[in-house]
Amino acid sequence: MPGLSVAVRRLLFLAAMMMRDFQHRAVDSIKRHALTISLRSRKAQTQVLQEYLWIEEGAEAIALDRIPPEAPWLGKLVSRQLADEERHAKLLRARLAELGVASTRPPPSILRVKLWWLDRVCAPYKQAFAAGPVVVLLAVAAQLELTGIRMFERHLGVLDTLAPDDPTGDLLRSILSDERRHAKSCASAARKLLRDHERAKFDELCDRVAAVDRSFGITISLGYWVNIATTAFRDRAADRDIAIEKAAS
Ligand SMILES: [Fe+2]
Ligand SMILES: [Fe+2]
To answer: What are phi and psi of 103, to 5 degrees?
Structure first.
């Protein structure tokens, strides 16, 4: 930002860091609370798993599917990760079936809006790298994998503290170890394709992608909390009604 003094730039940088930290903490507390509430209701737990399924079959798979196999090593990486995402979706569907959910719902429109917004933010960078738009697609895939890691780590943290024997824990641990590998391999594949002078531009792109992810985070997590809390509340009210009916008969 030309024309700004060093002190003002430092202040703006500090404010941006504080905002980033606030957004992460807000999303984490809202979702952690929703996950805690969900433990009281089977239906609410299925809603949580349904959201993971949207991410596995939607955001993560779409991001990888768009990556052209520019080189054999990249083609191999993408097909291996797509096979992992398919396995994650199967595991989630199997757990949902165990919990009594046979069919699943389509994703909410806000997830499609987020992908559209990511495309919009990334558009100016598509021709910015000698290796082509593949660099941008890998940056987006790496960010979505990082978001998945935070989401599964948070859920496991709640389960380890409050419900260590819940079978969902093993399922999430198995998915999480793949997601950690995916995030690393997408980021290092992008860096492998970069020329030295493109690194600053790439970091700028990654910052912008992460900012979109954070800005949608609070809205999505509030909707998530309302859905989970409403379902858990209805479920408890229904259980109470059944108990009253039984006591009266
Ligand atoms: Fe996945
Ligand atoms: Fe993944």
So the answer is: -125, 155
